[in-house]
Protein backbone atom coordinates (compact mmCIF):
# COMPACT_ATOMS: atom_id res chain seq x y z
CA UNK A 1 0.00 0.00 0.00
CA UNK A 2 1.45 3.38 -1.01
CA UNK A 3 1.85 6.08 1.61
CA UNK A 4 0.09 9.44 1.19
CA UNK A 5 2.38 12.10 -0.32
CA UNK A 6 4.30 14.15 2.21
CA UNK A 7 3.26 17.78 2.50
CA UNK A 8 5.73 20.44 1.49
CA UNK A 9 7.07 22.64 4.27
CA UNK A 10 4.99 25.59 3.08
CA UNK A 11 1.86 23.40 3.04
CA UNK A 12 2.59 22.21 6.59
CA UNK A 13 3.03 25.80 7.79
CA UNK A 14 -0.12 26.89 5.98
CA UNK A 15 -2.12 24.08 7.63
CA UNK A 16 -0.81 24.99 11.10
CA UNK A 17 -1.59 28.70 10.70
CA UNK A 18 -5.00 27.91 9.23
CA UNK A 19 -5.80 25.76 12.25
CA UNK A 20 -4.67 28.49 14.67
CA UNK A 21 -6.88 31.03 12.89
CA UNK A 22 -9.87 28.70 12.94
CA UNK A 23 -9.41 28.02 16.67
CA UNK A 24 -9.21 31.74 17.39
CA UNK A 25 -5.62 31.58 18.60
CA UNK A 26 -4.78 34.08 15.85
CA UNK A 27 -7.67 36.55 16.12
CA UNK A 28 -9.09 38.76 13.35
CA UNK A 29 -6.68 41.61 12.75
CA UNK A 30 -3.67 39.84 14.27
CA UNK A 31 -0.39 40.62 12.49
CA UNK A 32 1.67 37.78 11.04
CA UNK A 33 5.34 38.72 10.86
CA UNK A 34 7.39 36.84 8.27
CA UNK A 35 10.64 36.99 10.24
CA UNK A 36 8.98 35.80 13.44
CA UNK A 37 7.25 32.96 11.61
CA UNK A 38 10.49 31.95 9.88
CA UNK A 39 12.21 31.78 13.26
CA UNK A 40 9.31 29.89 14.81
CA UNK A 41 9.27 27.22 12.10
CA UNK A 42 13.05 27.26 11.58
CA UNK A 43 12.76 27.90 7.84
CA UNK A 44 13.70 30.62 5.36
CA UNK A 45 11.13 33.25 4.53
CA UNK A 46 10.30 31.64 1.17
CA UNK A 47 8.00 28.86 2.52
CA UNK A 48 6.47 31.42 4.89
CA UNK A 49 5.57 33.65 1.93
CA UNK A 50 4.15 30.68 0.04
CA UNK A 51 2.01 29.69 3.03
CA UNK A 52 0.73 33.25 3.51
CA UNK A 53 -0.14 33.58 -0.17
CA UNK A 54 -2.16 30.36 0.02
CA UNK A 55 -3.97 31.64 3.13
CA UNK A 56 -4.67 34.94 1.38
CA UNK A 57 -6.22 33.06 -1.56
CA UNK A 58 -8.61 31.43 0.93
CA UNK A 59 -9.37 34.80 2.63
CA UNK A 60 -7.82 33.72 5.91
CA UNK A 61 -5.31 36.58 5.77
CA UNK A 62 -4.87 39.90 3.99
CA UNK A 63 -1.51 40.89 2.56
CA UNK A 64 -1.41 44.69 2.60
CA UNK A 65 1.46 46.23 0.60
CA UNK A 66 3.94 48.16 2.79
CA UNK A 67 1.95 47.32 5.91
CA UNK A 68 2.15 43.60 6.45
CA UNK A 69 0.02 40.49 6.72
CA UNK A 70 -3.04 40.33 8.95
CA UNK A 71 -5.71 37.77 9.85
CA UNK A 72 -8.68 38.86 7.74
CA UNK A 73 -11.45 40.78 9.43
CA UNK A 74 -15.04 40.71 8.27
CA UNK A 75 -17.59 43.48 8.42
CA UNK A 76 -20.67 42.90 10.57
CA UNK A 77 -22.92 42.59 7.47
CA UNK A 78 -20.56 40.00 5.94
CA UNK A 79 -20.64 37.88 9.09
CA UNK A 80 -24.40 38.19 9.28
CA UNK A 81 -24.79 37.13 5.63
CA UNK A 82 -22.65 34.06 6.22
CA UNK A 83 -24.58 33.12 9.35
CA UNK A 84 -27.90 33.56 7.55
CA UNK A 85 -26.78 31.17 4.83
CA UNK A 86 -25.39 28.71 7.38
CA UNK A 87 -28.71 28.94 9.25
CA UNK A 88 -30.62 27.79 6.16
CA UNK A 89 -28.15 25.10 5.09
CA UNK A 90 -27.88 23.50 8.53
CA UNK A 91 -31.65 23.40 8.89
CA UNK A 92 -31.84 21.46 5.62
CA UNK A 93 -29.01 19.16 6.69
CA UNK A 94 -30.83 18.37 9.95
CA UNK A 95 -33.99 17.46 8.07
CA UNK A 96 -32.08 15.15 5.73
CA UNK A 97 -30.08 13.65 8.60
CA UNK A 98 -33.29 12.72 10.42
CA UNK A 99 -34.26 10.77 7.31
CA UNK A 100 -30.90 9.23 6.44
CA UNK A 101 -28.81 8.83 9.60
CA UNK A 102 -27.33 5.34 9.98
CA UNK A 103 -26.70 3.39 13.18
CA UNK A 104 -23.01 4.30 13.37
CA UNK A 105 -23.83 7.98 13.10
CA UNK A 106 -26.50 7.65 15.78
CA UNK A 107 -23.89 6.28 18.18
CA UNK A 108 -21.42 9.03 17.26
CA UNK A 109 -24.06 11.72 17.75
CA UNK A 110 -24.74 10.52 21.29
CA UNK A 111 -21.00 10.37 21.99
CA UNK A 112 -20.59 14.04 21.08
CA UNK A 113 -23.45 15.01 23.38
CA UNK A 114 -21.92 13.01 26.25
CA UNK A 115 -18.59 14.70 25.56
CA UNK A 116 -20.27 18.10 25.67
CA UNK A 117 -22.00 17.34 28.97
CA UNK A 118 -18.71 16.22 30.51
CA UNK A 119 -16.98 19.38 29.25
CA UNK A 120 -19.81 21.47 30.68
CA UNK A 121 -19.49 19.79 34.08
CA UNK A 122 -15.72 20.37 34.03
CA UNK A 123 -16.09 24.00 32.88
CA UNK A 124 -13.80 23.23 29.95
CA UNK A 125 -14.76 25.78 27.28
CA UNK A 126 -12.19 24.59 24.73
CA UNK A 127 -13.27 20.97 24.99
CA UNK A 128 -16.90 22.08 24.83
CA UNK A 129 -16.25 24.00 21.61
CA UNK A 130 -14.58 20.91 20.13
CA UNK A 131 -17.51 18.66 21.04
CA UNK A 132 -19.91 21.21 19.54
CA UNK A 133 -18.00 21.15 16.26
CA UNK A 134 -18.04 17.34 16.28
CA UNK A 135 -21.79 17.31 16.92
CA UNK A 136 -22.44 19.47 13.87
CA UNK A 137 -19.99 17.44 11.78
CA UNK A 138 -21.94 14.24 12.53
CA UNK A 139 -25.08 15.91 11.19
CA UNK A 140 -23.15 17.04 8.10
CA UNK A 141 -22.14 13.45 7.44
CA UNK A 142 -25.57 12.06 8.28
CA UNK A 143 -27.37 14.22 5.73
CA UNK A 144 -25.59 12.07 3.08
CA UNK A 145 -25.39 14.99 0.68
CA UNK A 146 -21.72 15.69 0.07
CA UNK A 147 -22.29 18.98 -1.74
CA UNK A 148 -24.49 20.36 1.05
CA UNK A 149 -22.05 19.15 3.71
CA UNK A 150 -19.08 20.81 2.00
CA UNK A 151 -20.93 24.13 1.76
CA UNK A 152 -21.64 24.00 5.49
CA UNK A 153 -18.05 23.06 6.36
CA UNK A 154 -16.64 25.86 4.20
CA UNK A 155 -18.77 28.50 5.92
CA UNK A 156 -18.08 27.12 9.39
CA UNK A 157 -14.34 27.23 8.68
CA UNK A 158 -14.50 30.85 7.51
CA UNK A 159 -16.45 32.05 10.54
CA UNK A 160 -14.75 29.81 13.10
CA UNK A 161 -12.33 32.60 14.11
CA UNK A 162 -15.39 34.49 15.41
CA UNK A 163 -16.70 31.63 17.53
CA UNK A 164 -14.26 30.80 20.40
CA UNK A 165 -15.67 33.33 22.91
CA UNK A 166 -19.19 32.07 22.30
CA UNK A 167 -18.78 29.17 24.73
CA UNK A 168 -17.06 31.01 27.58
CA UNK A 169 -20.31 31.71 29.46
CA UNK A 170 -21.60 28.63 31.37
CA UNK A 171 -25.20 29.70 30.69
CA UNK A 172 -24.47 29.63 26.95
CA UNK A 173 -22.98 26.14 27.19
CA UNK A 174 -26.03 24.91 29.09
CA UNK A 175 -28.33 26.25 26.38
CA UNK A 176 -26.26 24.59 23.66
CA UNK A 177 -26.44 21.22 25.41
CA UNK A 178 -30.21 21.56 25.82
CA UNK A 179 -30.54 22.37 22.11
CA UNK A 180 -28.32 19.43 21.16
CA UNK A 181 -30.38 17.04 23.26
CA UNK A 182 -33.64 18.26 21.70
CA UNK A 183 -32.13 18.04 18.25
CA UNK A 184 -30.74 14.56 18.89
CA UNK A 185 -34.15 13.35 20.04
CA UNK A 186 -35.69 14.52 16.78
CA UNK A 187 -32.86 13.08 14.69
CA UNK A 188 -32.87 9.70 16.39
CA UNK A 189 -36.66 9.39 16.11
CA UNK A 190 -36.62 10.38 12.44
CA UNK A 191 -38.75 13.49 13.04
CA UNK A 192 -37.65 15.59 10.06
CA UNK A 193 -39.84 18.64 10.72
CA UNK A 194 -38.80 18.97 14.35
CA UNK A 195 -35.13 18.41 13.54
CA UNK A 196 -35.26 21.22 10.97
CA UNK A 197 -37.11 23.53 13.36
CA UNK A 198 -34.79 22.92 16.31
CA UNK A 199 -31.68 23.39 14.19
CA UNK A 200 -33.08 26.68 12.84
CA UNK A 201 -33.70 27.87 16.40
CA UNK A 202 -30.24 26.70 17.48
CA UNK A 203 -28.42 28.59 14.73
CA UNK A 204 -27.19 32.16 15.39
CA UNK A 205 -28.38 33.18 11.92
CA UNK A 206 -31.76 34.49 13.11
CA UNK A 207 -32.23 38.07 14.34
CA UNK A 208 -32.20 37.35 18.08
CA UNK A 209 -29.52 34.70 17.74
CA UNK A 210 -27.26 36.97 15.73
CA UNK A 211 -27.56 39.83 18.23
CA UNK A 212 -26.61 37.48 21.04
CA UNK A 213 -23.73 36.08 19.00
CA UNK A 214 -22.47 39.56 18.08
CA UNK A 215 -22.46 40.61 21.73
CA UNK A 216 -19.76 37.98 22.44
CA UNK A 217 -17.30 39.60 20.01
CA UNK A 218 -15.03 42.65 20.48
CA UNK A 219 -15.51 45.52 18.06
CA UNK A 220 -11.89 45.33 16.89
CA UNK A 221 -12.61 41.95 15.26
CA UNK A 222 -14.54 43.76 12.53
CA UNK A 223 -13.48 45.87 9.58
CA UNK A 224 -15.39 48.66 7.87
CA UNK A 225 -13.67 47.75 4.59
CA UNK A 226 -15.51 45.15 2.50
CA UNK A 227 -14.08 41.67 2.09
CA UNK A 228 -13.61 42.46 -1.60
CA UNK A 229 -10.58 44.50 -0.51
CA UNK A 230 -8.85 41.21 0.28
CA UNK A 231 -9.48 40.09 -3.28
CA UNK A 232 -8.42 43.45 -4.72
CA UNK A 233 -5.07 43.20 -2.99
CA UNK A 234 -4.56 39.64 -4.25
CA UNK A 235 -2.99 40.88 -7.47
CA UNK A 236 -0.53 42.95 -5.44
CA UNK A 237 0.37 40.14 -3.05
CA UNK A 238 2.86 38.28 -5.19
CA UNK A 239 4.50 41.48 -6.38
CA UNK A 240 4.73 42.86 -2.86
CA UNK A 241 6.24 39.71 -1.45
CA UNK A 242 8.60 39.25 -4.40
CA UNK A 243 9.76 42.85 -4.07
CA UNK A 244 10.53 42.28 -0.40
CA UNK A 245 12.39 39.12 -1.32
CA UNK A 246 14.51 41.08 -3.83
CA UNK A 247 15.37 43.62 -1.12
CA UNK A 248 16.81 40.96 1.22
From TrEMBL:
Query: Ranges for the HTH gntR-type domain?
Result: 7-74
In residue numbers, the region (Disordered) covers 229-248
Which superkingdom does the taxonomy of this entry point to? Bacteria
Keyword hit for Zinc: no
Q: Does the keyword DNA-binding apply?
A: yes
- Annotated InterPro entries: GntR_C, TF_FadR/GntR_C, Tscrpt_reg_HTH_GntR, WH-like_DNA-bd_sf, WH_DNA-bd_sf
Q: Which UniProt keywords apply?
A: DNA-binding, Transcription, Transcription regulation
Q: PANTHER family annotated for this entry?
A: TRANSCRIPTIONAL REGULATOR, GNTR FAMILY, TRANSCRIPTIONAL REGULATORY PROTEIN
Q: What is this protein called?
A: GntR family transcriptional regulator
Q: Which organism is it from?
A: Paraburkholderia ferrariae
